[in-house]
Write a structure and sequence with these properties.
- By secondary structure, the protein is α+β, with helices and mostly antiparallel strands.
- 34% of the residues lie in helices and 25% in strands.
- The protein is built from 15 helices and 21 strands.
- Strands 6, 10, 11, 14, 15, 18, 19, 20 and 21 form a 9-stranded mixed β-sheet that branches. A 5-stranded mixed barrel has the order 1-2-3-5-4. The protein has a 3-stranded antiparallel β-sheet with strand order 7-9-8, with no helix packed on it.
- Helix 5 crosses helix 6.
- The chain starts with a helix and ends with a helix.
């Protein structure tokens, strides 16, 4: 029997003995009147060896336990912070001390009641008068100083990663604040939050490969949404709402890398009677607000890139940038010429790709060199089937994308509200889809019909949690609290499959 098995066997023995003594190792609740953060703040000025009269109670996981004979120490972590607990001969009742030594292990959830004091070394502590088992831990925690070393195991057992790593724990608190800052920013400016369908008859609002499933009750195939209700929110513009937004999960059945996942959180807003110029002003203000409220700064370093959100955001033209970087004029070059350039640049692309896909691959090569902050504008019509044409150049649309550290971290445009122009573009997308382009959009007849009732000029914009990953300087998977993982076959499952 290995060391790990011995520890588990010993803890199970303690569990059984607790039950035999009539003690429930998993009680329904524990009434903790205090928490570590409150106590640390309230008694911040308490002097060394000074005691506070009264009874205080805390509950949490015992991260460490040291028995030194007549005195024992433990570190209690309760989700708000940490506080030390002390058991001392002559101060802690004998039965409590015995219970602690006999049944309590590092990793257990315990409730502790006692007085507050500060030790000689300046550690605020609870001098235990009573201890209750709140939840018995059977599996031992990872080593304090090393944590979980295997990256896949760390993501698979994220609960332990959060428990053992304060930096990870604080990151997910920031992530919650990230979305709350966005929500407040928009609500303060008169936007209303809406919820649109996750299951759709056709996957619209973006160019992406959807996940499909079957709806048993209606006996029909449906798709998980690939946008944050883009076509639905624009129907709400038709309905007369001037400002809407949604924050939720969306799904794209595509590749994974440091910046992309298949399911992730997205925000999209739609703002009536405005265009992409108004959108750029609002988005710049939004990103600056996020940076300041979450990190207290506007300067960031991501990989080899450094950018300052506080400086003036430049505007970069799509076609001009590609021509300057690759010598290719996307409005004149043939598909064969673009393919030849992509091969020369060692950029991957699928054979028989649409012209829009080829052009987009050229742009992806160019954007890697842009640190930002900048807005990409002047996007060709081919790659933006839902955006309004630029009245000054019909080859382009009024689209804008924030560029940070060589990547697009948002997408917005003056929404197309001409139903006939939209219908023609849907037809082109449908042809691309039928010729094998999985990311092309289907013809959405219902949406075209809605546009025929009239939709005001509208600016739409969205970004995903990739923006948070950029601010954190981490791959997006690291910033997902429970990323999707391939299941591991357990030993009993393996044995069963071998029979």
């Amino acid at each position: 029997m290995g060391r790990q098995d011995q520890i588990i066997a010993e803890r199970i023995r303690k569990l059984k003995e607790l039950r035999e003594q009539g003690i429930n190792p998993y009680p329904n609740k524990y009434d903790a009147k205090d928490n570590s953060a409150q106590l640390q703040e309230k008694f911040a000025k308490l002097k060394n060896e000074e005691h506070v009269k009264g009874s205080f109670s805390v509950a949490g996981r015992l991260m460490t336990a040291r028995d030194m004979g007549k005195i024992a120490f433990g570190t209690l972590q309760d989700g708000y912070g940490k506080i030390q607990i002390v058991l001392q001969d002559g101060e802690t009742p004998k039965k409590v001390f015995e219970f602690f030594n006999k049944f309590v292990d590092a990793g257990d959830f315990v409730g502790v009641e006692g007085c507050i004091f500060r030790t000689k070394r300046g550690e605020l502590s609870v001098l235990a008068k009573s201890i209750e088992m709140v939840a018995k831990s059977i599996l031992p925690l990872p080593e304090k100083w090393h944590g979980i070393q295997d990256d896949e195991d760390r993501l698979r057992k994220r609960y332990l990663d959060i428990l053992m790593n304060q930096e990870v724990r604080e990151m997910f608190i920031r992530k919650a604040k990230f979305w709350n800052v966005i929500r407040k920013f928009l609500l303060d400016r008169g936007f209303i939050e809406v919820e649109t369908p996750t299951l759709e008859n056709s996957a619209g609002g973006a160019s992406a490969t959807p996940f499909s499933t079957h709806h048993n009750a209606m006996d029909m195939d449906v798709y998980l949404r690939i946008s944050m209700g883009e076509l639905w929110q624009k129907k709400l513009m038709v309905a007369g709402y001037p400002k809407t937004f949604e924050i939720g999960r969306q799904f794209r059945n595509e590749g994974m890398d440091a910046e992309h996942l298949q399911d992730y959180t997205q925000m999209e807003f739609y703002w009536g009677y405005t265009n992409y110029e108004d959108g750029m002003k609002l988005v710049e203000e939004m990103y600056k607000t996020l940076a300041k409220e979450l990190y207290g700064k506007t300067k960031f370093k991501v990989g080899e890139h450094e950018f300052d959100l506080g400086k003036k955001w430049e505007k970069i033209d799509y076609a001009d940038t590609i021509k300057k970087t690759t010598k290719i004029d996307i409005f004149k070059a043939t598909n064969e010429q673009i393919e030849s350039k992509l091969k020369e640049l060692h950029m991957e692309y699928e054979r028989n790709s649409s012209r829009a896909s080829l052009i987009d691959s050229l742009w992806k090569y160019c954007r890697k060199k842009i640190s930002g902050p900048a807005f990409l504008i002047g996007t060709p019509v081919e790659v933006s089937p839902l955006a309004k044409r630029d009245p000054k150049d019909s080859r382009k649309v009024e689209r804008f994308q924030p560029i940070l550290a060589g990547s697009e971290v948002g997408n917005g445009y003056s929404e197309l509200n001409d139903p006939f122009d939209q219908e023609e573009r849907f037809k082109e997308q449908q042809k691309m889809k039928e010729s094998g382009d999985k990311e092309a959009q289907s013809h959405d007849f219902d949406f075209v019909e809605a546009l025929k009732y009239g939709m005001p000029p509208t600016c739409g914009f969205g970004f995903s949690e990739r923006l948070f990953a950029f601010f954190e300087g981490k791959p997006i998977r690291e910033t997902v609290i429970f990323p999707l993982m391939k299941p591991i076959k357990k030993e009993n499952e393996q044995e069963s499959s071998n029979k």
